[in-house]
Amino acid sequence: xxxxxxxxxxxxxxxxxxxxxxxxxxxxxxxxxxxxxxxxxxxxxxxxxxxxxxxxxxxxxxxxxxxxxxxxxxxxxxxxxxxxxxxxxxxx
Length: 92
Fold this sequence. Notes:
Layout: H1 3-15, H2 18-30, E1 33-34, H3 35-42, H4 46-58, E2 62-67, E3 70-75, H5 77-91
Antiparallel strand pairs: 1-3, 2-3
């Protein structure tokens, strides 16, 4: 399987979950958030929130940076768009 196919599959699998789509919207609205704030917004367990955020990172949809003891998450627009464009160009 090609690298492009793997990236595309990871992206679409990540988008196939309603909670993750809502997390993307929340990150877009707030620009950057720590996992605890995402967790509180959705009343999710810490492990579930971590799983969703890591899935979004592996898919190229989110990125993170460390600030003190917190890890802040945001939408990785550049990578997200790049994968979508590459996928679109490979299909059409």
